[in-house]
Input
Amino acid sequence: MISSFQHSMDQKFIETDILIIGAGPVGLFAVFEAGLLKMRCHLIDILSQPGGQLTEIYPKKPIYDIPGYPSILAGDLIDQLMKQIEPFKPGFTLGERAESVEKQADGRWKVITNKGRVHVAPVMFIAGGLGSFEPRKPPIDNIVSYEGKGVDYFVRNPETYRGKRIVIAGGGDSALDWTIYLANEVKSLTLIHRRTEFRGALDSVEKVRHLAASGKINLITNSQVVGLEGTDKLDNVLVRHDSEGPSKLEADYFLPLFGLTPKLGPIADWGLALERGAVEVNTLDYSTTVPGIFAVGDVNTYPGKLKLILCGFHEATLACQGAYNLVNPGKKLSFKYTTVTGIEGLSTQDSPS
Amino acid sequence: MIAVTVIDREGKKHEFEAPTDMGLNLMELCRINELPIKGTCGGMALCASCHVYVQSDHTLPEQSDSELDMLDQAFFVEPNSRLSCQIRLTDALNGLTVQLAPDDAEE
Ligand SMILES: Cc1cc2nc3c(=O)[nH]c(=O)nc-3n(C[C@H](O)[C@H](O)[C@H](O)COP(=O)(O)OP(=O)(O)OC[C@H]3O[C@@H](n4cnc5c(N)ncnc54)[C@H](O)[C@@H]3O)c2cc1C
Output
């Protein structure tokens, strides 16, 4: 489904009406409400797929409090939202973190991602949920100093590891899947896991055990990585076995794959009033203390706030009303039901209004 | 009502009286009392943000597969590690004492 939106991924400069930080359910629904008012949207998310917490944390769990659905799987709700917003042709910048926000001379916002992609819009919606999903870094003292010098928290390009000595740590699906995938490409591969059992898919666990039995990989269980060594880049990984004590492995790359956790991140640095890590808003239209920036969904706070999808949908709807006046200065908005107007999509070619 | 002691990350002791007739779990008790525990997943053992060390020797509910799985991904895990959302407060847990594990999302 994403593929039809990927066009925006090769643009270095993106202009839109509403720039939405976070492609969770609330950011996605905002596209729909904005679309009804003929405003175009572009979403930025650090994850490589839309859906926020629903796709990252609980895609297979049923949700029971979405109006009209006695029960719907979180992953299915996101698929439905993607279908619902399709006519409005939102743009997506995925796999990138919105890093800096700056007001341009023309009054519009300029948002730059960690990959340097520039986005410009008169209005910003912060729909960042609990924050941007970041890899969980194991508590190894000097790990940060080896980032980009042998320590990778994601496999971005498997080619990097061809013919190299790799150490992977973790016991979940991504550790298992990458172990299986890389086993034949690399010079040597060691998988280190804290326990003897693995919690990944049974089939992958079988494969990994098979690779270990046939000597294709080195499987070390009941062990943790406790240190890293190397002068300019990673040379050695220090391992501690629960009962056998420490050992040292030569390695070109160390891949700690322990899943993701949400961190508020850059949103905290954008000059917005925060209360306990959430953005304060005015419930009239979910505007923040900075004109032109709205905050909707789990990321905001106000008296009576509940972190529910349904509440986020309401917030996004009202925020679009507030945004309309900024995107279309001087124009009057008349309220219409979708039953009256139907859905009039926006075309990809449309330039921002 | 039972007595529960929670030691925070700075080593400070918090003593609580907790009801046992509300189906409350230990993660919820901590959050109600504004201790810095995230409980991101709401209590389904789908994250490890409510990780604690159990210091008293009470008999606790068995660990489910999903709790073991999440502790598997957690850091600073010790033999007495538990996810506090999986510890339902019952009369048998009077005098329970736990310590909050480090927040591994902080760098
Ligand atoms: C296990 C679990 C069960 C739940 N069950 C229910 C339920 O039954 N009913 C219910 O209503 N709610 C439930 N919730 C809560 C619900 O998931 C949230 O309310 C909802 O996800 C909020 O949506 P959102 O769009 O505001 O944020 P999120 O879903 O958190 O999405 C925010 C997105 O923003 C991205 N982001 C943040 N900052 C940046 C940045 N700087 N750059 C790029 N991207 C960024 C993040 O990567 C993320 O993808 C549950 C939550 C969990 C974890």
Remarks:
- Chain B is about 15% helix and 20% strand.
